[in-house]
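Whether sequence alone determines local backbone shape is best considered at the level of individual chains. The sequence in question and its structure tokens are set out directly beneath this paragraph.

***
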Amino acid sequence: MRDFKLVLIKELKDILRDKRSFVMMFVPVLLFPLMFTLMGSQMDTKNLEANIPCIVEFENAKTEEADRALYDSLFHKACPGLIDPKEATGGRTAERELERGAVYAIIRFNDGTVFVKCNNSSTKSMQAWKNLVDKLSTVSQLSLYQTLQTQYGVNVEQLLPFRLVPEQMQTGNSTLASIAPMLLVALIMSGGVSVAVDLFTGEKERGTMESLLTTQASRISILAAKYTATLSVSLLSMLMSVLAYVISLKISKNALALMTGGTGQTDAQLSLQFDQVLRLAAVCLSLSVFAVSCMTLIGLHAKTVKEAQSQMSLLTIFPTLLGGLVLFMDSVNVGDGSVWIPIFNAIISIKMIFLGTAEPRHILFTAASSLLYAALLGVLSVRMLKSEKLLR
């Protein structure tokens, strides 16, 4: 233990001495809120619920009078203040004004038919178009019901064969379940990569690993100290990144709507229960141990820093691909065999935790399998460290 503490303190001091790497762990706390605020500003749709800037055109001269009457009934009586009529300026056409963002929609009337055109390359134009179409569809349906009832004496409710009341079973947090698995696993698998490269491959490339191995400290103590230092940095990096995302989503609700498809869930719905936090911690900690074991083995095996960085890039790419796959999977029908698939088991478990469908045995087996694989990788790392081929 004395040798372990000495080597661990040495490695931690070296990490802290490298101010650039240490500061980089805090960059997400400053960068992510700014990024999400900018994203949210592009998703601010409050001003698109009324006074939507539009160009109104009447295409058919023969029916223009009737079309204008329809226009007045829609936007002056049924939906007052919904649009803000504009005209093309500077000799531009209506399409050109829509393309450059001066207006968000073009509304054309032609013999009782209403055409609503948007620019699908503009988020605000798409949202404005959706608001216009939804409200005009509602007005059209209500007008039909009113005509049937007043002019023909038809009870519209009696025409319907049944009443449909849609309901959803809310078992958890679908918002966080859609973004958290990929986010957390990617952060865990990449958090300590730079430190692992420097502590293992970097030492070999600088020629300091050989002198370290010739000291009285045992090789297992050296490996355990370097492993612990890498794990500490990995966990700290993950916590700082998660904190940055939480702060960002608290600051910018519009960015949250962008990431979750506009679900509009409240802060209470975005919170976690205590048992969910414990299960999440068990999965994340066990995955962190597995991730650092992978980094350690790669760091010992690689001969150059460039080679190690190239191999460790897979620790970021592979979880991201799996996270995208799990995003579209139905976690309810996932078999018990998934708990033995590295990384995938953690991603699906995190999703199930946020959905509230994770069973204790599934979390237990997931954490146990991750630790088991980490132990196997640790054995390989010990053998490699004891081998004379390490320094070649």
